[in-house]
Sequence to fold (337 residues):
Amino acid sequence: MTDDRSEQTDDRPEAKDDGSTAEKNERKLEDEIHTDLKEQMTYGSYLDLDRLLSAQHPVSDPVHHDELLFIVQHQTTELWFKLVIHELLDARRLIAAERLQPALKRIARVKHIQKTLTEQWSVLATLTPSEYVGFRDELGKSSGFQSWQYRAVEFLLGNKNRGMLAVFDSEPEAREQLETYLGEPSIYDEFLRFLARRGLPVPQRLLERDVTVAHIFDEELLETFRIIYENPQEYWLEYESCEELVDLEENFQFWRYRHMRTVLRIIGMKRGTGGSSGVGFLQKALDLTFFPELFDIRTGIEHGPGTQSTPGAANGRGAQSSPDAGSGQDIGAGPFA
Fold:
């Protein structure tokens, strides 16, 4: 009697002897991959990796194992700050040039960077108090408080403070750059000017204010934002922009909070190496705001799409297009939220 199993054929394709990944747990180098890179730009040369990866200089002696974490954490933060400044400067330029949509794209990128920066605190939080104390004294008076790029971000968003410049007296180039940002309009200043050019009632004193000082809450400006928020389909770009700015501030506050909590976790209530009160000083930063009216207006919103229109909303402009225009659906915060 014939065993039927012997008659069965295996329909599976034969394994090719091509050094497959599955068989050898190794990926074969494709013939087209460039290997002769003499006198060519390479990944390493383009990114200047030799210099970048040799820029970590621990000061503890003998070198403490965890000091490299501390250095890399802050260096990567500074690289992200560099990109944030790059994007905010261009967003401000675009707003001034009446190009709001590409400006929102820049702001959207900043929002993603902010999230990365906030999550990054979790890496530093793996540094325990007993590990940090092993090299903290070697840091001297150096402190993140002395980050000029962080101050630049604050200035560009509107937290102007001339007193901060004194921290950078020993770094003339950094101080000069901060003085420049101090004397220029913030993102919010430019946005309010944009709203005024669009016919919205922005108080003249805000358009002519001293931009070297921080913007403070202005009751009269609430009416401007009430018009926008209660008529989003007519003021779609302005409405979306308001929400993008709210995201920016909210993300910044999340970063500040994680900073404060990470410091508390690592050094408790000790003074900072830069001379500040430490956690107490960082907590005060949570009271600072960039766009106060954009948060305060939420309490006073009484009408929305499809309800009673707000007086002064119609200004002769054609209604702006929105993702939900005429659909009867709820309106969200826009494509970059």
About this structure: The chain has 14 helices and no strands. The two ends are 73 Å apart (CA to CA). The CA atoms of residues 222 and 297 lie 6 Å apart. Residues 309-319, 324-337 have pLDDT under 50 and may be disordered.
